[in-house]
Amino acid sequence: MSKFKLSCEEANHVCDKTQYKEASFWEKVKLNLHLIYCRACRKYTARNSKLTKLVKSSKMEYLDHSAKDQIKVAFEKELAKHQK
C-alpha cells in the first residue's frame, strides 16, 4: 500500500504536473487516492484547477520581443541621463 501513498507535498507537485499535462497515469492514480482522504490537498487541487481555467480563458495581450527591446532601450537611455 505504501507504493500508492503520497505525502501532501508530493501530491501538490503531482497536481501541478497534472495541470501542465506532465503527470504519468500512475501519478494521477496516486493523486486521486490521496485526494480521497486529504481535505487540504482537495482544496489545493480545486484552487489550482480554477486558476488554470481563469488563465486559459483570459484575454491577455502581450508585447512582442521587438516592442520589449524598444522599451528597454528607451528606459536605459533615460536612466543614463539621470545617473550623471
Q: What structural class do you assign from the helix and strand content?
A: mainly alpha
- List SSEs in N-to-C order: HHHH
* Mean pLDDT across residues: 90
What is the domain tally? Answer: 1
The outline comes out as elongated
Number of helical stretches of at least 4 residues: 4
Fraction in beta strands: under 5%
Helical amount: over 70%
pLDDT < 50 runs, ≥5 residues: none
Rg over alpha carbons: 21 Å
How far the N terminus sits from the C terminus, by CA atoms, comes to: 68 Å
Major beta sheet summary? none
Number of strands: 0
Description:
The longest helix is centred in the middle third of the chain and has 19 residues, at 39-57. The protein has 84 residues and is mainly alpha-helical. The protein is elongated. It has helices at 8-19, 25-37, 39-57, 65-83. The mean pLDDT is 90. The chain has one domain (2-83). It is built from four helices and no strands.
